[in-house]
Design brief:
5 helices, 8-stranded mixed beta sheet, globular
């Protein structure tokens, strides 16, 4: 993504966005700033078309998963995503781990390495690209999958979502469109705190 284009987005925050339509979402300023920082510091993200950005600094009752078209500079999807039980049983993810059995989510950059149908239905396998941070993702079985414990009701009534075993779990209605956007060689998944 061109840094100039992202800076234009930030400068025009709150103004009418001519590129936004009924199929795109506004990207919060803080998320755009975090994404810009990551793109400037991480060559693995530059040149990618799609970034699935998960902001674990937000509580689970907020829509903290953003799928961003980096070339068109629009947010294509914004939805809820779970964090692992070991990361915290409340709305905030506090702990992160690369260790098997930790039930924690991991931070860092992940590469989608193929879709499959497993016990959670349609899912995406993930390869962690950060040594010592998330590079055990394949061995740990960290995937993107659907889960009934992610819902609008949980967000509004309970002020939290359920917890995964460390996977990125989304509402069942969101898994198919998410897989279509993210399961491609020019996509990357980035989880930050």
């Amino acid at each position: 993504m061109n840094v100039f284009l992202l800076m234009t987005l930030l400068l025009n925050w709150g103004k009418v966005d001519a590129k936004r339509d009924e199929h795109t979402f506004l990207l919060p300023k803080i998320v755009a700033e975090k994404l810009l920082q990551i793109q400037q510091s991480d060559a693995r993200i530059r040149g990618k078309k799609i970034a699935c950005f998960i902001d674990f600094s937000q509580p689970s009752f907020e829509k903290r998963l953003y799928v961003i078209d980096l070339q068109k500079q629009v947010c294509l999807m914004n939805t809820w995503v779970a964090h692992g039980k070991g990361s915290g049983r409340n709305a905030m993810a506090e702990y992160f781990s690369n260790d098997s059995g930790s039930l924690c989510s991991s931070l860092g950059v992940f590469e989608p390495i193929g879709q499959f149908y497993g016990k959670h239905g349609l899912s995406i396998r993930l390869k962690g690209l950060d040594k010592g941070v998330n590079d055990n993702a394949v061995d740990r079985g960290i995937i993107v999958h659907a889960a009934d414990y992610i819902s609008e009701k949980n967000a509004s009534f309970y002020k939290r979502q359920g917890n995964s075993f460390g996977c990125f779990a989304v509402m069942p209605t969101m898994i198919e469109p998410l897989v279509k956007l993210v399961n491609q060689p020019n996509a990357v998944i980035v989880a930050v705190k």
